[in-house]
Amino acid sequence: MRSYAQANIFDSICILFALAILPMVIISIGIQLKENYERKKLTQSYMDQH
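RESULT FIELD:
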């Protein structure tokens, strides 16, 4: 059985970890979506020109 203090520290570490990782995940997903969108736009304009 864990003491309340230990559980509290563990929870706050987990929360900090999640808060640190979340923005990185969101940014990387955003970058991938942006690259995919720009690649689609490029191929679209290429198809329109030819």
